[in-house]
Amino acid sequence: MTRMPLGLLALAVGGFGIGLTEFVILGLLPEVAADFAVSIPVAGHLVSGYALSVAVGGVLVTAATAALRPKSVLCALMVLFILGNLLSAVAGDYGTMFAGRVVAALCHGAFFGIGAVLASKLVAPDRKARAISIMFAGLTIANVLGVPMGTFLGQQLGWRSTFWAITIVGVIALAGLIAYVPAQDAVERGPGQLRRELGAFTSGQVWLSILVTVFGFGAMFGAFTYIAPMLTDLAGMPAEAVPWMLVIFGAGLFTGNIIGGKAADGNLDKSLLLLLSTLTVVLLVFTITVHNPWAAPVTLFLLGAVGFAAVPGMQTRVLSFAHRAPTLASGVNISAFNLGNAIGAYLGGTTIAAGLGLSSPIWVGAGLAIIAVALMGAASLKLRRTNTSHSGTPERPTPALTRKVLS
């Protein structure tokens, strides 16, 4: 049995802290709003502001650090993460708290983007997707265990205690990165790296892969964003059951992350087509089961499992076509996940506001999933045609992935 590199564990701990920072605020909004004497909608800007900062930081921070050593960048990003959460923990007013959220979020996209590249280089070529899934496992564990525990801690000892705990997690992750993540050979990076990173976007497959990420991830979160009122108003569950339903969804994320990593290492394009098609089916079934308190949790688990199972493959596909300069493309794809999240949530909210009912965001998610399937099918077909053509220079993924993409 191959031993997992400790550097992957350090990346996973960092992912856990970042995931906890992003989502734990959802369970603490009432306490934060009361402490700063603002309304719940205003406190909600701490969520949307974080997401926007992630989307922007994933591109700009990654681009600004393209010529630097990945390990040094990851450590610096974790320091930024620690400072942002420390600022949130000691914030005396809403503005300071918002600033702390923005600072912490700036590291999110770049950390996962650069971390995914580095994780894929810590293992054998045929285990790249599984390595990426291990790093993302920290994010899923944050949803399964971290958010409920962080919410409980904040309710018992005050919301600031949660951010102090996250700060400590950041310190542990930083120590692990320093101790166990190997320094990348400087020969692989240097002046002109940003130009090479931008060159990755001349690949049509990179853009198609990013679009698959936007619509595929948007499909899952288009339905999930409004899950609380769906469960209480449509399934007839008590409000006290909602946190447990979130744990079930988080368990699905964790399961899907493991399955998706193995599937992507087996056959990249076919696994993504299968998973996105299955996600469409699950969402269509969910429009029915969301009205049943017993069937809804099962479908919710499947939504998390199938939806997140595609994540390692989505990230791996971008890396496979931007392999000579993958860092910026990887960071942009992390931003694409957040863009998909925002699009799905916005469209779902729009349909509810239009009077189409609380289940309408699920139909929105199904529609986005169908678009993702079509894009993935087009990308796979384009790749096959390109690589079977005898004219011009074929566009190929990394050699280690070529067999898996085309077999």
Q: How much strand?
A: under 5%
Question: Averaged pLDDT, please?
Answer: 81
CA-based gyration radius: 20 Å
**Count of beta strands:** 0
Category by helix and strand content: mainly alpha
The low-pLDDT segments are 185-190, 390-394, 399-407
Question: Which second-level CATH architecture of the largest domain applies?
Answer: Up-down Bundle
Spatial gap, N to C terminus? 26 Å
Number of helices: 17
Q: Major beta sheet, specifics?
A: none
CATH topology tier name of the largest domain = Growth Hormone, Chain: A
**Helix proportion:** over 70%
The coarse overall form would be globular
Walk me through what this model shows.
The chain is mainly α. The protein folds into 2 domains: 175 residues, MFS general substrate transporter like domains (Growth Hormone, Chain: A); 212 residues, Growth Hormone, Chain: A. Helix content is 81%, strand content 0%. It is built from 17 helices and no strands. The longest helix has 30 residues.
Descriptive key words:
2 domains; Growth Hormone, Chain: A; 407 residues
Task: Summarize the topology.
Elements: H1 6-23, H2 25-36, H3 40-43, H4 45-64, H5 70-90, H6 94-120, H7 128-157, H8 159-180, H9 193-199, H10 204-224, H11 227-234, H12 242-266, H13 268-289, H14 295-321, H15 326-353, H16 360-388, H17 399-406
